[in-house]
Amino acid sequence: MKHCLAMLAFMIIPTSFLFAQEAAPEVVSDIQKPSRDFLMVQFTYNNWENTPDSIKMKGIGRGFNAYLCYDFPISKSRFSFAAGIGIGVQNIYFDNQELGFTDTGMAGQQVSFLPESIDYKRYKLTTTYLEAPFELRYFGNKINRNKGFKAAAGLKVGTIVGAHTKGRYTLEGAKMTEKVNTRRYFETWSFAGTARLGWGNFSVVGSYNLTNLFKENQGPAVVPYSIGICITGL
User: Vertex 121, ends 119 and 122: CA angle to 5°?
Assistant: First the structure.
C-alpha cells in the first residue's frame, strides 16, 4: 500500500507542477519599440511678415520640407528630444512685379521690387535651405506614437543653399522661361521657431523666422513664416 501511494504521489506532483506552469498568467511587457517619427514631411503655405506696400504678392506661396530625425526619449516619460537634418524649399509669387538685383559696389548691392518689364504669366522667388530641426516632443500615447495626441516645439536652423527667381511668359507664340540665380543678397543663416500639434501621423505645423530673409541694407526687412500639414512616421 505504501508503495502504491508513493507511486501515485510520484505521478501527481510533476503533473501538478506542469499544470501550474501552464496555468501561470502570461506576463505582457509594455516595453515596445514605438515609432520615433524618424521621417517628417511638411507641405506649407508660405508668406512674409513686415512686408512694405511696395511688394505685391499673389496666389498661394507654397513650401515643402523633408527631414530625417532621431528621437531621444527622456527617461520613461511621455517627452523626448529630437534632432534631425533635411531640406526646406519656399516659393513666393508676385503680382505684376519682378525682383531687380543691382551691384554698384559692396555698399550698393540691393534687391528692389519693380514693375515687371515683361508680361509674365507667373513670376516667383524660390529659396532652398539645408536645415536642422530640434524639437521637444510630447506623446499622449507612448506605447504607439502612431496613435494619440502629439505636440512639439522647437527651433529650426538653416543655411541657404540656393535662391532664384523664375518668370514664365510667351514671346511670339513660344513659351519662355527667365531664371536668375543668386544667393548674395540673402542671409546665410536662418533661425525659426517651430510648433506642431496633431493626432497620430498627422499634425498642423507652423514656423516663424527669427531672422530676416535679406541681409541688412540689401533688401526689405521681411520675415518669412509658414503654416501647413506635417506627416510623420517610421
Answer: 115
Q: Which residues are 56's β-sheet partners?
A: none
- Could you give the C-alpha distances from 45 to 4, 34, 90, in angstroms and in order? 87, 30, 9
- Grid coordinates standing for 187? 542671409
Residue with C-alpha cell 514605438? Answer: 34
3-state percent breakdown (helix, strand, coil) of the chain, nearest 5: 10, 55, 35
Buried residues in 147-177 as b, exposed as e (16+ CB within 10 A): eeebbbebebebebeebebbbebeeeeeeee
Instruction: Decide if pLDDT at 17 tops 50.
Output: no
DSSP for residue 6: H
Burial label for 92, CB within 10 Å (0-12, 13-18, 19+), is buried
Q: Are 215 and 20 in contact (CB under 8 A)?
A: no
Rounded alpha-carbon distances, angstroms, from residue 184 to 61, 102, 103 = 22, 11, 10
pTM of structure: 0.82
Q: What's the CA dihedral at 133, 134, 136, 138 to 10 degrees? A: 30
pLDDT of residue 107: 55
Report how far residue 197's alpha carbon sits from residue 219's, in angstroms, rounded to the nearest whole number: 34
The model's pLDDT over 127-181, given as tens digits with 9 standing for 90+, comes to 999 999 999 999 999 888 888 999 999 999 999 999 999 999 998 889 999 999 9
pLDDT tens digit sequence for 185-204: 999 999 999 999 999 999 99
* Cβ(136)–Cβ(194) below 8 Å: no
